[in-house]
Amino acid sequence: MSNTASIVAVVLVSIASLAVGAFGLRLSRTMSDFYVASRGVSPVLNASAISGEYLSAASFLGVAGLILARGVDMLWLPVGWTAGYLLLLVFVAAPLRRSGAYTLPDFAQLRLESAVARRVSSLLVVVIGLLYLIPQFQGAGLTLRTLTGAPSWAGQLVVALVVCLNVLPGGMRSVTLVQAFHYWLKLFALLTPLFFFLGAVGSRRSGPDVGAVFVADWVEPLGGDNALYLTYSLVLATFFGTMGLPHVVVRFYTNPDGRASRRTTLAVLVVLSGFYLLPVAYGALGRWFASDLVAAGRADSVVLELPSRVFDGPLAEGLTALLAAGAFAAFLSTSTGLVVSVAGVLSQDLVRWGGGHRQGIRTFRISTVIVVAVSLGLTLVAAGVPVARAVELTFAVAASTFCPMLLLGIWWRGLTAAGAIAGLLVGGGLSMGAVLSTTFGLGSAGWFGIVMTQPAAVSVPLAFTTMVLASLATRSRVPEHVAQTMVRLHAPEHIDLNRGSFHPERWYRRAVRTDEASPESAQPGGSRDATDPRTGATSAGEHPAYVSGGMTARRPGTTVRRG
């Protein structure tokens, strides 16, 4: 079968993505445009963009492959990845938007009033983003290899180049439009061939060729050793991991207000619930037409190979090309979102130099190239972990780190910086150990090996417990301005209350400008009395971390300045 149509489809998707991104470039003028699209994205457009970003290589290819190989147990993946947005809707979406942050490190510094907490959060954002980028590049290599026989690195390099070209010109403004376009393309790419496949099943008189897939193992849940622990661990990772993913959370910063964030999340729930029926159907169809892929170790390619197993001639080529276009859109949309979130953190906290708007955008673009290059290098040296499995482990890291910090930080005023940092280190350390052991093929025996295979059931409760106990042990160090921060997070925007003057763009500009003038007396909060949180020095008695977040403390007999 000729693969010309599939190659043309991949090229067209890349060109269309660049064209949509170029249109977004016309709208990108400020730092706020680059980081959060000036917080002006409507709920419908944002829901499409979030869904386009969230439905990654694991959703498009990996879920179908795991359903084909392991059956009903893997239904927890699409269920958990969708249900995670329900928790976001109830607990996180609106307060996070009201925080006014650009990134998760911004939120950590606002809530915990600690520069150390910000640095730890920045490091974790980079780690989670890189881990999530690896399966996206792996999926791209798998797609191009399946379609053309080209080496895996070729597809990975193509995605890396297109992602860079999408992100570099316009930041979040461009990415939002590209991701919304990708979502509808992916939906069309999976839905259209499904009608043809279902018709073929209806006309087929013989039963499915199950091959190496045994019926009992496929339809009965909780089969195999330690299945109960592994299932509960998977549920925890997928349910709680969503709210800890930096590229997911950053999209809620782009809504106009907290109410719009909730409406966006509700729309995402509806959209994802419908979409995830499709890869499950493809996995079930794989049992009829391509069960031999399990024994061959190519279950992840079932979506791309189904057309050639069922049909011949131009119809098979056309359906394969359509699925290839959707798969490539999946890699591009998720990768661009990840790169934007990680590059935003790098440009603010790790590679920042120069003052002013132009230097800030230049630093963001340099960070983008760094993120893509490092991710591509890690993909080339990582072991051949199945795509959905790699994403599952990344969810475990997110669930063990940022999820506890967000839930406790938003809903419990007793959380301290020391408690949050301790929990981030404990949960992140255990879950990252599991990721490294799996990604690079380092196996272990016994219960320790089982925990390393699926760590969330241990690492998530441990992270929550550590944060609570460490905060109780350091209750005298509760952030000084936590009451005002809680007002900012929970009070609706239309109520006229003192919410402080936190604004990350202003903090960024003034921090850079003052660092250049006098590193020992930086004033990132915009207050003349404030000092650099990295030195810990203050003047006029103001709290250093609070001021460094861009908020100005209230002194007796003074008024609070609004930013």
UniProtKB/TrEMBL annotation:
Gene3D superfamilies: Sodium/glucose cotransporter (1.20.1730.10). Signal peptide: none annotated. The keyword Repressor does not apply. It holds the Pfam family SSF. Keywords: Cell membrane, Membrane, Symport, Transmembrane, Transmembrane helix, Transport. Residues 512-563 are annotated as: Disordered. Its main location: membrane. It is a multi-pass membrane protein. The chain crosses the membrane at residues 6-25, 45-69, 75-96, 116-134, 154-171, 183-201, 229-253, 265-285, 321-346, 366-387, 393-412, 424-450, 456-474. It is found in: Cell membrane. Belongs to the sodium:solute symporter (SSF) (TC 2.A.21) family. PANTHER family: CATION_ACETATE SYMPORTER ACTP, SODIUM/PROLINE SYMPORTER-RELATED. This is Cation acetate symporter. It comes from Terrabacter terrigena.
